[in-house]
Amino acid sequence: MTSQVSPAEQADGTDGTDAAVVGEQRKPGGTKDVRRLDRVIIRFAGDSGDGMQLTGDRFTSETASFGNDLSTLPNFPAEIRAPAGTLPGVSSFQLHFADHDILTPGDAPNVLVAMNPAALKANIGDVPRGAEIIVNTDEFTKRAMQKVGYAASPLEDGSLDGYQIHPVPLTTLTVEALKDFDLTRKEAERSKNMFALGLLSWMYHRPTEGTEKFLKSKFAKKPDIAAANIAAFRAGWNFGETTEDFAVSYEVAPAAKAFPVGTYRNISGNLALSYGLISASRQADLPLFLGSYPITPASDILHELSKHKNFGVRTFQAEDEIAGIGAALGAAFGGSLAVTTTSGPGVALKSETIGLAVSLELPLLVVDIQRGGPSTGLPTKTEQADLLQAMFGRNGEAPVPIVAPRTPADCFAAALEAARIALTYRTPVMLLSDGYLANGSEPWRIPELDELPDLTVQFAQGPNHTLEDGSEVFWPYKRDPQTLARPWAVPGTPGLEHRIGGIEKQDGTGNISYDPANHDFMVRTRQAKIDGIDVPDVEVDDPHEARTLVLGWGSTYGPITAAVRRLRAAGEPIAQAHLRHLNPFPKNLGAVLKRYDKVVIPEMNLGQLATLIRARYLVDAHSYNQVNGMPFKAEQLASALKEAIDG
Q1: Fewer Cβ neighbours under 10 Å: the N or C end of the chain?
Q2: Three-point CA angle 415, 420, 424, nearest 5°
Q3: Strand arrangement, sheet containing 248-252
C-alpha cells in the first residue's frame, strides 16, 4: 500500500521500549478515552497454524497506508508444521510503528497478543512489566498448559500481576460471530486471528478498508470464507468498541516529519531486492535470468521474480543448487543479467561454479540471504556468519566483490549496486542480505525513473586486436585499461568465437595455458581488477569529535544507529560508520579507523569483519558478538558501547 507524505526535517527517534504518552482526549460523543502515543511495539504470537504472520502483515499494511514509520520482525519455526501447542511451534510477528523516524522492530513489546499458553510462555520473558497482554482464554485448558510446563494457570496464580491482562475468549467470540455462516466449528475457529486483528485495529485506530479488500481478493474463489473472515474482523472491532475491558484506545500520528516527499509503500527486504534486480535488468537493457533452488529464507525472491515475465524475467527452478548457478552462468555467457539466489548451505555447493565465473570473468550476481548455521543450522533465524565464506570460500585465488544492504528497503539499492559492479567489471558479485532484512519490512520511497543509474552494456561487436602481420582478430581477454574488464562477447556473433572453461587462460587470447608466469600474471590481474573497483568512500557520522567509533555492516545498521541515538541523547560522544562494500573496502577506511582511539564492531557472528579489519589495517578492533538467531536489541548495544566509551 502507498501513502503520500510532505517534506520535513527528519525526527530523531530513539527506538525506545516504552511508548511515550503525548496527549489524551475523549472521543466525540463517546465514552472511552483516546490516548495519543509517539510509538508502539506490538507482538502477535500463537501456534504456527494460527495465522500470526498474516495478521501481522495486514496490521503492518494498514499502518503503512496510515503514514507511520514502521519496522517489523517476523519470527517463525523452521518446521513446516510443528506440533500444535508446543513451544517450538510458536510463531510471532512484532511491529514497531511511530510518528517519527525509527530503525528497529523494538526491543520489547508494549502489547502482546497470546493466542495460547505456548505463545504466552515463549514470549513473556520479553514483555516489560506494565505492558498489556491480550490472552485467548479459550486455549488455556489443563492439557494445553501442561504441554508447555504450566502446573497452574498463569492467569490465576498471580504470576502475571505486574501486567495489564485482558482475558478475551477469542475462539468463543469468533464462533459466536460466525454462527449464521454455513461453517463447521473448526472452520469458524480459523478466523480468530481476524477477530484479534479487528480488536487491535480498533485499539490503535488502524484503517480497515484495505484489510477487507485484501480478504475479498484472497478468498475470491471462496466468497463464503471471505465473508466469514470479514465478519470476524468486524466483530473484533465492535468488541473493542463495546467491551468494558478496553477503556482506552490509542492513536499514533503519521510520521510526517520522518520522510522526504514522495510516494511510499511498505516493502520487505526480499521484495525490495527482487524489484532492484528487475530495475537493474531494465536499466542495463538486458533480460533477467534467475537460476535458483528453493531455500529458506531466499525462496521469496524466486517466487516474486516468477511473476514478472512481462519485464523479460526468466526464472528457472533447478533440481539443486549446483544446477541453479550453472544455468545462471550459462545465461551470463549468453548475454543476460544472470542471478542465482541461495543461503549459506547453498553458497557452499555453488563455490566451484563461482570460481568458474571468476575464471571466465562474466557478470553474475550471487545473492546470499544469510541464516544461522553451520550446516542446516537455523533455517528461519538470522545471522551474519557468511562473510568469510563470501570472501575466501573458493579454491585458488578467486576474489569477488561483496555488497551488503543495511535495511529492508536498502536491498533495492544494493541490488542495483551489485549489478553495476558485475556488469562494469565482468565479475561475479556476492550480495549478502540476511533473514532479518529479508522478512522484515519498512516504508520505501518509490524512486523516479531518472534517479536510477544507467547500467547500459556494450557487447563486443568485432575484432579488437591487431597481430604483427596486420591481421585483425578478437582477443576475449584483452582488457579495458581502466576497469581491467574483458569484452563480453555474445555467442553467435560472427568472428567472436572463443574458448571458455575452467583451465587457466593465456592473457589476451584466452587459449589454454599452463605457463607459470602467465598463471601468476592472470591471478594478480584478476585480483587487481577487484581491488580497483570504484566504490564510494565510507561516511562517518561524528557530530562531537568522539574518540570511539562503532563500525558495522549489513543489518546491524538499525540496532547500531538506535543505540548511538540513545547514547548521544544521554550526552555520550560516539561516532558511527557503516560499510556497504566489504570487498574491496572503501579507499578511505584505513584513514577513518586511525582517527579513533577505539573501534567497536558489533556483528551477528563471532567477529568476521573484525578479523578482516585487524588483518588489513592493523587496528585493534573490539568485537561485540551475538549468534542467537535474533537481531541485536538497541538497549543491549547501547550498554556495550557505553562500556567501550568508559573503558
Answers
A1: C
A2: 155
A3: 21-26, 33-37, 248-252
pLDDT tens digits, residue range 450-480? 999 999 999 999 999 999 999 999 999 999 9
Buried b (16+ CB within 10 A) or exposed e, 173-199: bbbebbeeeebeeeebbbbbbbbbbbb
Q: What is the mean pLDDT of the chain?
A: 94
Query: Contact, 146 vs 111, CB < 8 A?
Result: no
pTM of the predicted model as reported, rounded to 2 decimal places? 0.94
**Alpha carbons 222 and 233: distance in angstroms, whole number:** 17
Q: Alpha-carbon distance 609 to 551, whole Å?
A: 9
β-strand pairing of 402-403 with 428-434: parallel
Which tens digit of pLDDT belongs to each residue from 351-407?
A: 999 999 999 999 999 999 999 999 999 999 999 999 999 999 999 999 999 999 999
Contacts of 441 (CB under 8 A, 6+ apart): 60, 70, 71, 72, 266, 267, 268, 269, 408
Task: Give the pLDDT of residue 6.
Answer: 34
Contact between 114 and 50 under an 8 Å Cβ cutoff? The reply is: no
